[in-house]
Amino acid sequence: MNFRRLFLIFTPYTWLLIFFLIPFAIVLKISLSDYAISIPPYTPVLDLEAGWAGVKEFLSALDFENFTFLTSDALYYTAYLSSLKIAFISTVITLIVGYPIAYGMAQAPDEWRPTLMMLVILPFWTSFLIRVYSWIGILSNEGFLNQFLMWTGIIDAPLQILNTNTAVYTGIVYTYLPFMILPIYSALEKLDGSLIEAAEDLGCSRLQAFWLVTFPLSRPGVIAGCFLVFIPALGEFVIPSLLGGSSTLMIGKVLFEEFFVNRDWPVASAVAVVLLLILIIPIVLFQRNEQKQREAEG
Amino acid sequence: MAQPANRPVFAPWTDPNEKPLIRFQNVTKRFGEFTAIDNITIDIYRREFFALLGPSGCGKTTLMRMLAGFETPTEGTILLDGQDIAPIPPNKRATNMMFQSYALFPHLTVWDNIAFGLRRSDMPKDQIPARVEEMLKLVRLEKFARRKPHQISGGQRQRVALARSLAKAPKLLLLDEPLGALDKKLRQDTQFELMDIQEKTGTTFVIVTHDQEEAMTVASRVAVMDHGRMIQVDTPDRIYETPNSVYVADFIGDVNIIAGTATPKGDDKVSIVWAEGQAPIAATAPGALTPGTPVHFAIRPEKVAIATQKPEDRANVIEGTVEDIAYLGNISTYKVALPGGQMIKAQVANDRRIARRNITWEDKVWLSFTDTAGVVLLN
Questions:
Q1: pTM of the model
Q2: How far is CA A24 from the centre of its chain?
Q3: Whose CB among A227, B235, B258, B280 lies 3.0–4.6 Å from B297's, allowing a Cys bridge?
């Protein structure tokens, strides 16, 4: 193996090592430590000057106490379950909203497509935080939505939307919609139009042709889109803390509170490690899907 | 065509009692300003293998897509079995189409591709496997039933597409450039296979092609199209031997076209004055011509004989110089320059070995043909 290839292979792995594996090892180490009022706020701290005995002492002080603690308090596993539920429902809604948009884009005349694509990507040009913040202006009791609904006479009193799970769903679906649309669009765009004609020619109605041909062939795009929405939505922190209320329980928020409010780094690290373990399953599935798709195309 | 009298010739278009399967009545199709099909009236009969032949953009594909139901005529009616098909959507028509790209469903196996149409039909579920097996056998793909389309070769894909479109036993099968993606050798084999299958199933085939050889090989009748109009509809041999226009003569095969003015000589004979200092061409033209009519004389290269000595017994003899020789193995084409600068091609079968060939470049040669060898064209 020549130097060039070695370099190409080692670059991403070095990147992964420095920016993912080492930080993860540190977090893992903290999660096995104990809370302490000190700087840093945990014990033990590795004392390299003490030599081998120091390392031994350090290792013997590590334990799984924090992980046991997570199971003892209902707060944590309800937060995990609630996050899974919110991420799952948001993914389904995003799919239902995103698929028709992607389909419409793929059916649009060629000269429109770059513009439509631009419109999908356009929100990324402003800060994510500002976009989520502006939803407060829309959803609050005095917000645009309530004002509009009251003006049309559909409701007499403002609806409580902000600080509920509905607002969280709205925020997640809004934020992650482009991640759903783009992979589905790319799958649908490649679709040969004569396949649909062939299906119709062989006796399918338009709807049957869609279910029997278009949808199965866009499945890799759907799967990719779902993972791209589900994975970040699970650990989402900004949206539930800005739009959600006291009843919205998401693990991202719990994590933030452990770190910055309670300053309990070991428990916060344990929460983060468990979150990562939960995410590994969909990430591995996602990778498999990508690989299968590449094989089918190659 | 000297056919023995006792052998029935398949020619339903000559029988006035025969009912056509498809009838185009003054069909016009416009896309915005562009007229794709210009007032076409044509009958296609049961069991015919009808070829639509023409350059790209001549409207042949549009005509076929109207039969399949993907386009509707702007004016005129299309009757299938006496019924106007304009309001019938593609999925309700008794026609099936084999697409140029084959349009096989990539997510389904060969078996499921063939069964696809049957499952949408009212065929009882338990009869479907037998029909699929029958189709697989017809196209000799039994071994590949469980493969996906990307796991088989181009020729096999083509056969799957054919089997899929035949599975529902359509009244009419439409083939859109079915052999376009195959290499030449495979294409020739497949042409015969296609004719075999057409005969076996007794289905009416309409094929779209831009390959004149393919049209001539497979079709019972060929329609030569240009700019949305049908220039000539006839059997392959008549299209070749008696084209009705310079366009058809030029489009089908190789031809020498000589412009001149015709003078009738009685008894269907005409003499064509075509160049200063050359004897007029003696030819045959049925029907009355007024003296001095401008005409084109078309003659196929293989009907022009080439010799080093002046032949005595031929109606037309022209002297020239060999300019170029194209050796194609089985035949050689000689390009002969006439004194006036005109080129005439003569084709000779190479029934002798190349070393024995006695004509070479720059040789003075005599071209000759009989007075019935060519056709006189008015347009």
A1: 0.81
A2: 19
A3: B258
The complex scores an ipTM of 0.82
Closest residue, chain A, to B150 (C-alpha):
A296
- DSSP 8-state class, residue B18: P
Tally of CB atoms within 10 A around A254: 22
The three-class DSSP label of residue B174 is: strand
Tell me the nearest-neighbour CA distance from A195 into chain B, angstroms: 5
Question: Judged by CB atoms within 8 Å, which residues 213-242 of A form the interface with B?
Answer: 213, 216-217
| Domains observed in chain A | 66-297 (1.10.3720.10)
Q: What is the pLDDT of residues A60-71, one digit of tens each?
A: 888 888 999 998
Q: Which residues pair with B84 in a beta bridge?
A: B79
Quick check: A217 and B89 CB within 8 A? no
B306 and B365 in contact (C-beta within 8 Å)? yes
Give the strand pairing for B22-31 and B34-44: antiparallel
Output A87-93 pairs: Cβ under 8 A, ≥24 positions apart. A87/A172, A87/A229, A87/A230, A87/A233, A87/A234, A87/A236, A88/A230, A89/A169, A90/A168, A90/A169, A90/A172, A90/A173, A90/A176, A90/A229, A90/A233, A91/A226, A91/A229, A91/A230, A91/A233, A93/A169, A93/A173
Mean pLDDT over residues B172-200, rounded?
A: 88
Residue of B nearest to A202 (CA): B117
Q: Could you write out the DSSP letters of every residue in B302-341? A: GGSEEESSPPSS-SEEEEEEEEEEEE-SSEEEEEEE-TTS
The helix (run of H) or strand (run of E) holding residue B203 is none
Report the C-alpha gap between B16 and B36 in whole angstroms: 30
With an 8 Å Cβ cutoff, are B90 and A213 in contact?
Answer: no
Coil, strand or helix at B89? coil
Instruction: Please state, in angstroms and rounded to a whole number, the distance separating the CA atoms of residues A199 and B251.
Output: 35
Q: Stretch B111-138: mean pLDDT, rounded?
A: 94
Average pLDDT, chain A: 90
- Of all residues in chain A, the one with the smallest CA distance to B70 is A197
Tell me the two tokens of residue B348.
């000779």
Which domains does chain B carry? 12-94+170-249 (3.40.50.300), 254-377 (2.40.50.140)
What is the spatial distance between Cα A141 and Cα A168, in angstroms, rounded to a whole number? 16
By the 8 A CB rule, do B202 and B47 touch? yes
Chosen from B116, B165, B171 to mutate, greatest number of chain A CBs within 10 A: B116
Give the other-Cβ count within 10 Å of A247's Cβ: 9
DSSP A31-67: HTSEE-SSSSSEE----GGGTHHHHHHHHHT--SHHH
Euclidean distance between CA atoms B298 and B373, whole angstroms: 9
Written as one letter, the residue type at B332 is: S
Cβ–Cβ < 8 Å for B301, B320: no
Residues of chain A above pLDDT 90, percent: 62
CB contact, 8 Å: B117 with chain A?
yes
Contacts of A200 in chain B (CB under 8 A): 69, 89-91
**Which has the closest alpha carbon to B336: B308, B367, B311?**
B367
Residue A196 has pLDDT above 90, yes or no: yes
Q: Which residues of B touch A199 (CB under 8 A)?
A: 105, 116
